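Lecture notes, unit on binding sites. The following record was shown on slide 14. It pairs a sequence with NAP.
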Amino acid sequence: MSTSTPIFTADSTRYTNGMVYARCGRSGVMLPKVSLGFWHNFGAEGDFALQRRIARYAFDHGITHFDLANNYGPPPGSAEETLGRLMNDDFKTYRDELFISTKAGYEMWAGPYGNWGSRKSLMASLDQSLRRMRLDYVDLFYSHRYDPATPLEETLQAMVDIVRAGKALYLGISRWPLEATRFAVDYLARHDTPLLIYQGRLNRLDQAPVIEGINDFCQERGIGFISFSPLAQGLLTDRYLHGIPANSRMTQGRFLKPEMLTPELLNQLNVWNEEAKTQGLTLAEASLLWILQHRSVTSVLVGASSVEQLANNLGVLRHIEK
Ligand SMILES: NC(=O)c1ccc[n+]([C@@H]2O[C@H](COP(=O)([O-])OP(=O)(O)OC[C@H]3O[C@@H](n4cnc5c(N)ncnc54)[C@H](OP(=O)(O)O)[C@@H]3O)[C@@H](O)[C@H]2O)c1
């Protein structure tokens, strides 16, 4: 007797129920203003039923862009495996409606080839990612970080060749400094694989890419910009206004540490929360709106540990110019 797999039928209103799409730089690609990241909450240690509810809710509300990386988990690689399971069970027939990205550049496997930006590392990593995600190609492949020790030409030529081999449609870079970004843009343009997008952390508590000139440069050169950790991992929501909830990211203490929540920051968050209320917004909505009001920003890449959080974050769409 065969076991039946639940068949997922996406909501027929998914493209008319509020999502706004923006052109990614001067490319042909439209991205949703709110995209979903798989860094946290999608690893093997999570509850697959919940992960599936979040992913389905996202897709049902027009979130066509899921962002991954080789090392997302925990354990590393397992978020891609979760996506692979979702692709197989739920999204197989929707592949052409999804824009899926992955990355390589942080430590992934032991030895000299499982890290940084060599041709060897990027090529092997993407092959592994495709197997885990059960995909033939990704829509977008990123260099996850700038590698000061590898010649930029080597990293970039590997990326060009990845596109030529049909394993990725577009290319992106994340957290590269401005000068190296300029080099990348020129190199990739000369090789007919223009840089699609820059992924950087821009939020109300961290404006580094704007200060460093990355956003202006992207705007000038027709490159999209997507903001990761737009809610500063939850700080820019009501999550920590009344203490540290037991099941929050801060209790894991790995990337968001309790010492980051200083009394000064808490005061600032309360001020922003009150301000948001007077505008009829939640703090999360106001925080996302602040980012999306930058002309250079194509999309915000949110994380969520529940459907309710994602629903709240999508509330920002009611407040942006269409
Ligand atoms: N390129 C890079 O180097 C890089 C680095 C980091 C992230 N990223 C990408 O960016 C994505 C998002 O990063 P992130 O997860 O840090 O994003 P985030 O949106 O800043 O933070 C997500 C966390 O904030 C909390 N949260 C979200 N919405 C909420 C709401 N409405 N109310 C209350 N709490 C809420 C949840 O924390 P709890 O879990 O506590 O509930 C959630 O897990 C990642 O998945 C990844 O794709 C890329």
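Take-home: Residues 21-319 form a domain with the TIM Barrel fold (CATH 3.20.20.100).
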